[in-house]
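Two folds, back to back.
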Amino acid sequence: MDPDGEPAADRRPVPGPPKQPLTQPVPLPRNRSEERIEGGGASHRRRRRRRRRIPETAVVLVGPMAAGKTSLGRRLAKDLGIPFVDTDAVFVRDHGAIAEFFAAHGEAEFRRIEAEIVAAELARPGSRIVALGGGAVLAASTRAALRAHPVVLLMTTQEAVLRTANLARRPLLRDDPDAWGRILEERRPLYEEVADVTFRTDRTTKDQLARRVSGWIRGQARRSGGPGGAA
């Protein structure tokens, strides 16, 4: 018994004051969904910043047959997060194989349709990479339209093309290997007329080339434009 007459076992300790004020907020554990939402927002902002650093128009790849326009175009589009269009592929989708079309309808009709496809792709709004066929610059209307776009000329050598090209898919090169050089010399002034910058595809790896061209494209968004030099 204690002095108050109650058994000692029935007495309960009086709780002391709290260690922190009751009005102080207690942090709640974050759940994974909140973290994903916040992380996704940051990633989205980074993508938007990256998109703002590139031209809001089509960036065009030109150059001779088998210079690597399609493969590089795909890499650039992936790196920059924008669409890629190959105008030769658009033609094949809508009209069938180019070689067969040539045989049935002639080059003049092919060039007419090709110029229409190029004009339609260049007129589309927004950032994109557009790769043109080797002879697309023969059309005066195409060369005029290219003045409003950043244009990258990809150059290589006949030796490199014959070493790396799939000749089974390029019967012209298979049957007449020297045709590539002759055609290039005929078209070289037209390529140089439309190009803002030139990159060699036979002097570097594909990854290095993609990084260099991506850097040039991003730079176009920070400049008003103007002719570039060889790279």
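---
second:
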Amino acid sequence: MSARFSSNVPACVVETCYEHEGVIVPNIMPLKVLKRMRSFTVRPDDLFVVTYPKSGTTWAVHLMLLIKHDGNRSELEGKHIIKMVPFLEIVEDMLNPSTSALRIDAAEAMASPRILKSHYIPPFLPMDISTNDPKAKVHETNIMNQPRGLQPPI
């Protein structure tokens, strides 16, 4: 067991992750972003797409972009999805996460309305969307892409 983890983890996890509040987090989601995410300024017209990894996130984001642009795909041509819908907790340079620019910075500078993406669990999301009086309108939509794929094999 590594001193950085509260339980036994494989060597590949020790090399590529850290533990924060009992949750194993990949190094490409640095602690400085995780802490900053809690104070991220939420706007009333923000739309957050928050999903488990590999559960249809990109598909959902594409749908949201098409809705935002009234189905006009020509407005999306030539633009990379990560620039239009930033993945808040990921760094720009995944090979050098400790010195990389943060995508959350780009998100804060975006014009409204924003579509924002995250795989964080609720306790790590911005405080403004986890209170009884959220600044952003929170609508829960469950997205599942073959849910059995999200469960560890038995």
